[in-house]
Amino acid sequence: MSSWGWRADGEDMGLKSVFNAVGSAEKQYQQFTDVSRETGNEKIMHPLEWWKNRRGIKQDAQLRCANYFCSNPAEVGAHVIDTKTGKHVYIVPTCKSCNNKGDVSYYVTDKHLEECTNIKPQHELIQKSDERLEIIKKKDIFRALRKMGLISG
């Protein structure tokens, strides 16, 4: 909170608004094939394991949730979509609570985003998530109107 009694939105702070992709818990989205930086061998990885591998981070490293306003430890790799464009699927490390957010967006820094270019049915996740994106955009509009004092509640 600022001294004037309002809190800046994440975008005012240079953060990216994302939301959890619909249907990403299905098995086809939970397995990534990549070359392990630790062993040099090709391996099937879960999303958080894949994210750490892409970043050159040791698998046993403890991370904080990528949600800027959360301080819980990261437990999973969440499939998220950029709220502004709705076009790209990324993996970010999150806690289970943030990974299970429904029709709510949250803020992450660009440094946490790892685009899932290797997901073949990426467009399916985006299509399944279109309805959620519309709900989130409506909520964001109401939040902005409340912030400007144009509506209450």
List the helices and strands and how they pair.
Layout: E1 16-20, E2 32-35, E3 42-45, H1 47-55, E4 76-82, E5 89-94, H2 96-99, E6 106-108, E7 114-115, H3 122-147
Antiparallel strand pairs: 1-4, 1-6, 2-3, 4-5, 5-7
N-C termini distance:
18 Å
List the uncertain runs. 1-8
Secondary structural class: alpha+beta
Major β-sheet annotation: 5 strands, antiparallel
Describe, in plain words, how this protein is organized in 3D.
Mean pLDDT is 76; it is low at 1-8. The longest helix is centred in the last third of the chain and has 26 residues, at 122-147. This protein is of the alpha+beta class and 153 residues long. The two termini are 18 Å apart. The strands form 2 sheets. The chain has a 5-stranded antiparallel β-sheet with strand order 6-1-4-5-7. The chain has helices spanning 47-55, 96-99, 122-147, and strands spanning 16-20, 32-35, 42-45, 76-82, 89-94, 106-108, 114-115. A hairpin with a 6-residue loop joins strand 2 (32-35) and strand 3 (42-45).
Task: List the main descriptive attributes of the protein structure presented here.
153 residues, alpha+beta, 5-stranded antiparallel beta sheet, two-stranded antiparallel ribbon, 3 helices, disordered N terminus
Short description:
The protein is α+β, with helices and mostly antiparallel strands and 153 residues long. Helix content is 25%, strand content 20%. A hairpin with a 6-residue loop joins strand 4 and strand 5.
